[in-house]
Amino acid sequence: RGILAEDALGLASWAVVGGLVGARLFHVVDRLDYYLVNPLSALAFWQGGLAIWGAIAGGAVAAILHARRHGLPLARLADAATPALLVGQMIGRFACIINGDSTGTPTDLPWAFVYVNPGAMVPPDLLGVPTHPYPLYEILWNGATLALVWRLRTRLKVDGALFLTYITLYALGRFALSFVRRETVWFLGLQEAQVVAVAAAVAATAALYVLWRRTQHRMARVEIRT
């Protein structure tokens, strides 16, 4: 996409740091009751507990600041990073399978996960209980989204459209799949991730509409001139 490798690497370095900070912050907010009692545990990110929405938000803030400082095309950079972001999310969910960080709700389906290791991050009342394999569901959804994004990467000509499409699709999937995930409910029966998903889907869809309208106006001006 015409971006120098050193520019992409420099931005990625800051985005990774921002992503880690944001991912941990969102996790701490989601389980604030625990971390108010155990404040030092909030810094122990190596023990597990990173929220993908926080990673996207923190990484985006760091990327925006870095891109503006160095005059880089932010929307084009976001499009270029989109397939890798999805691959990264899929890899991360494999880690969730291992440590039980993303626990599903109880189920009697034959493909349920059963955690028996007391060292897993599964709630104590779900040890030995068949649960929905939530991380696997999200891996499959992200894989399908990646396949679509990969086909669209050369077809969407407007900078930023590919990234916004990814955000919209991931938000829709995350909202629906979280109904079979065991997490703290915020309000109206919705978890933190679902509330963020709704906000992200609305914002990304609105931004896509604005891009589409701008493209239509630009094409209309060209037709008038010709």
User: What's the end-to-end separation, in Å?
Assistant: 29 Å
Radius of gyration, taken over Cα atoms and rounded to an integer in Å: 20 Å
Number of strands: 2
- Helix tally equals 7
Give the strand line-up of the largest sheet: 1-2
Question: What is the average per-residue confidence, as pLDDT, rounded to a whole number?
Answer: 87
Major β-sheet, in short?
2 strands, antiparallel
Percent strand: under 5%
* Class computed from helices, strands and strand pairing: mainly alpha
| Overall morphology | globular
H/E series: HHHHHHEEH
Uncertain parts: none
What would your notes on this structure say?
It is a single chain. α4 (74-99) runs antiparallel to α5 (134-152). The protein is mostly helical and 226 residues long. Helices cover 65% and strands 2% of the residues. It starts with a helix and ends with a helix. The model has no long low-confidence stretch (mean pLDDT 87). A hairpin with a 2-residue loop joins β1 (185-187) and β2 (190-191). The chain has a two-stranded antiparallel sheet with strand order 1-2.
Please provide a brief summary of the model.
This protein has 226 residues and is mainly alpha-helical.
